[in-house]
Specification:
By secondary structure, this protein is mainly alpha-helical. It has one domain (about 1-100). The protein has helices at about 5-25, 30-50, 55-75, 80-95, and strands at about 1-5, 100. It has a two-stranded antiparallel ribbon with strand order 1-2. Helix 1 runs antiparallel to helix 2 and helix 1 (about 5-25) runs antiparallel to helix 4. The two termini are about 15 Å apart.
């Protein structure tokens, strides 16, 4: 049984949020709309894959870094899109460095982090 997978669940939720954010926040910029949808799917898929292949979580660190700089590189219009991408990017990047580990039931918290 997998224990301590909450970091993957958080990034999965953040990826889903990015897919839903453009219409909910009223993104005005087509670049922001496309970037959020694409990165949302990639982050959610990577987080989901991270349940079975823990080291893949580091891809989300790269995706989070891109979200932080994307508003400036792509020239977003609209402060909601900029603020959302920076905050979500920071959260995704930070959470991606938190390891999860598999522990059988009844096992103590010793072992190797992934």
């Amino acid at each position: 049984m997998l224990a301590m997978t909450w970091p993957r669940w958080i990034n999965l939720a953040l990826g889903i949020w990015l897919v839903l954010a453009p219409p909910l926040l009223g993104h005005l910029d087509a670049n922001a709309w496309t970037n959020d949808r694409l990165l949302g799917v990639l982050i959610a898929l990577t987080a989901g894959l991270g349940f079975w292949v823990p080291r893949v979580r580091f891809l989300n660190a790269a995706f989070g870094a891109w979200l932080i700089i994307a508003p400036f590189v792509l020239g977003y219009i609209g402060s909601r899109a900029i603020t959302n991408d920076i905050l979500v990017g920071i959260a995704v990047a930070v959470v991606s460095f938190i390891p999860s580990r598999a522990l059988p039931r009844g096992t103590t918290r010793t072992g190797r982090y992934s």
